[in-house]
Design brief:
- This protein has about 170 residues and is mainly α.
- The chain is about 65% helix and about 5% strand.
- It has 5 helices and 2 strands.
- It has helices at about 10-45, 50-75, 100-115, 130-145, 150-170, and strands spanning about 80, 85.
- β1 and β2 (about 85) form a beta hairpin.
- The longest helix has about 35 residues, at about 10-45.
- The radius of gyration is 25 Å and the shape is flat.
- The protein starts with 11 loop residues before the first helix and ends with a helix.
């Protein structure tokens, strides 16, 4: 049975603790995927490692670094002079937030990086990230902007209604 009423809000301390746990979790994913990739491709199969193998490792490291650093700066708490928590930072577990997309990028990169131990062609799956970004750009920004009705005939009745309301208010006073 679903709870009735307004959904509860999180306090500063709860957001702070959850952000810290979320950052730890994603750091473990980053370190684990990078370690598996490095051990398999750059240690065990070092003689067969090509330039592409190294470039893929550097690419994933850059993606991990920028995504994790962005999440870390979003979740940065602020403290008062006496050391108490003033603000827990932005909630990283909030739905439809920028942190959600950063977490998706980290997970996609980790999956692709581990699977690329079998074949470098798996890196083509990383093209899902810019594809999703273009989709979100179209659905949320470009599509509504290009298909918006901007006919001046549709705006005239609004101006007439506004004038009528202004006249009625002037008559009241």
């Amino acid at each position: 049975m679903a709870p009735k009423g307004k959904a509860g809000t999180k306090g500063k301390k709860q957001i702070f603790e959850e952000n810290r746990e979320t950052l730890r979790f994603y750091l473990r994913i980053i370190l684990g995927a990078s370690a598996v990739y490095a051990v398999v491709n750059l240690v065990i199969f070092y003689p067969t490692a090509s330039t592409w193998t190294w470039l893929a490792f550097v690419f994933s490291s850059v993606i991990y670094g920028t995504s994790y650093r962005s999440m870390n700066s979003m979740a940065k708490p602020s403290f008062t002079d006496d050391g108490s928590l003033a603000d827990g930072g932005i909630d990283l577990n909030m739905e439809q937030g920028m942190a959600e997309h950063l977490k998706d990028v980290i997970l996609l990169t980790a999956i692709v990086q581990v699977l690329s131990c079998f074949s470098l062609y798996v890196w083509y799956f990383w093209l899902l990230a810019p594809g999703r970004a273009l989709y979100l750009l179209w659905v949320n920004i470009l599509g509504p902007w290009l298909t918006a009705d901007s006919s001046p005939a549709g705006q005239e009745p609004n101006e007439k209604k506004q004038r009528r309301q202004e006249r009625r208010q002037m008559k009241r006073f």
